[in-house]
Specification:
The structure is a single chain. By secondary structure, the chain is mainly β. 0% of the residues lie in helices and 51% in strands. The termini are far apart.
Length: 61
């Protein structure tokens, strides 16, 4: 299970595998996965599938 860090400001674009297209995510939030990697989790506005956008593992200063 991913640990929620908080909501993300501004639009985030991710690739929806179900729609096979890049979409602006609905309700994006930053999460930390169980392997320590950071990601942004949101939903596709068209089909409602959960979409992840992976980020660097360490927070930028």
């Amino acid at each position: 299970m991913a640990q929620v860090v908080g909501p993300v400001k501004g639009p985030v674009t991710g690739f929806c595998v179900k729609c096979r297209a890049k979409k602006d995510l609905k309700n994006p939030e930053e999460v930390i996965l169980k392997n320590g990697r950071r990601a942004i989790r949101g939903t596709c506005p068209t089909c409602g599938t959960t979409v992840y956008v992976f980020m660097g593992s360490k927070k930028a200063k």
